[in-house]
Each structure stands twice: as structure tokens, then as C-alpha cells.
Design a protein that fits this description.
Blueprint: H1 9-19, E1 28-34, H2 43-52, E2 55-61, E3 68-69, E4 71-73, E5 78-79, E6 81-82, E7 85-86, E8 88-89, H3 93-102, E9 104-109, H4 115-124, H5 139-160
Parallel strand pairs: 1-2, 2-9
Antiparallel strand pairs: 3-8, 4-5, 6-7
Helix pairs in contact: 1-2, 2-3
Length: 178
């Protein structure tokens, strides 16, 4: 699915920035969960651009400090190979912290037991904006009372008519065989 090897954290941050509405008054934050290894672009520049747009970039680092092979099938102990060599990955805490600093956010270690509460504390610092949802009635909903009124009038007329065949309907044979 991925045409080239490597991670493009900057492209992911740029895509997240572009998904926000720039005219919105809402405070915005991007949470990047990564091992910090970035091979494709300059993630610090992308985070700096996000911060300039008023978007806080917080980073959660996951992985081990020691380089480890990437498992493809853990039940058979198969690992990822590229160009005949085993691909290994490690947590680059310094790189992840640099991205968070450039984005005006914080770096959190994913192995910490307090990562969720620390992230919640950080996000609580963002100014809250009241969001109100309003519904605009459609033209069809304006016609509903009129349709009900017509149906009730026809029902009252049906009840008021005597239960016998009208004279002009006697000549019409609805269920006759030819």
C-alpha cells in the first residue's frame, strides 16, 4: 500500500492543517502518535507552519529506544525485509520532542502511565469555544400542517356521508368480468 519506505510526518501534519477550516474561531490541536523517525520531509517546518496557523501540535512518542525489527507475522516470527536487509525501527525521542516544540505543544512518552492525563491537561489549556448547533426548518416541514388539515377534513367528510352507494356510482362496475 505504501509506494516508498519511510515516514513523512510533515506531510501528515500538513494534511491535518489543511483539514481545518481557517475561518473557524475554534481552538485547534493536532496529536501526532509516532516513533519520531522521519525520512521524507521536514516535520519541524510543518509543525511550525501549523503553530503559525494557530494549531497546537502535541506529540506522543511510541516504540523502544533500542532498534527492533518490524514484525510482519508475529505468530511465525517473520520480520520486514527491504533490499535483503532486516528493517529496524527505534523511538527517536529527540526528533519527536523537536516536532512538539516547533508546533507549540508538548512531547509525551507513550510508555508513561500518565500519558492520557498529561495530554488531557495540555488540551484543557486550549481556550474553549462554545459550539451551538442550529437547525433550519426545510420548506417541506412547513407544508406538513397543511397536509394534516386536508387529511382530517377528508376524513370528516367520509364519516359524514351515508354508507350507501351514490347514484352516479351505481352505473360503474369496478370488478366485473368481460
Amino acid at each position: 500500500m505504501v509506494p516508498t519506505q519511510g515516514t513523512a510526518i510533515g506531510a501528515a501534519i500538513d494534511m491535518a492543517v489543511n483539514s481545518f477550516n481557517p475561518e473557524s474561531d475554534f481552538q485547534k490541536a493536532i496529536i501526532v502518535v509516532t516513533d519520531g523517525e522521519n525520512f521524507e520531509d521536514n516535520a519541524q517546518d510543518a509543525a511550525k507552519h501549523a503553530a503559525e496557523a494557530g494549531i497546537q501540535v502535541d506529540v506522543i512518542g511510541v516504540g523502544t529506544v533500542e532498534p527492533m525489527p518490524i514484525p510482519v507475522n508475529s505468530s511465525r516470527n517473520e520480520y520486514l525485509y527491504y533490499g535483503g536487509e532486516e528493517v529496524r525501527t527505534a523511538l527517536d525521542e529527540a526528533g519527536a520532542a523537536d516536532i512538539a516544540e516547533a508546533g507549540g505543544g508538548i512531547y509525551l512518552s507513550g510508555s508513561s502511565s500518565s500519558v492520557v492525563s498529561d495530554l488531557k491537561t495540555q488540551l484543557d489549556k486550549i481556550a474553549k469555544t462554545e459550539y451551538k448547533r442550529t437547525a433550519i426548518p426545510s420548506d417541506a416541514s412547513d407544508l406538513f400542517p397543511l397536509a394534516i388539515a386536508i387529511a382530517l377534513i377528508l376524513l370528516l367528510i367520509d364519516v359524514a356521508l351515508p354508507y350507501r352507494k351514490l347514484t352516479w356510482l351505481r352505473n360503474i362496475k369496478f370488478f366485473s368480468k368481460k
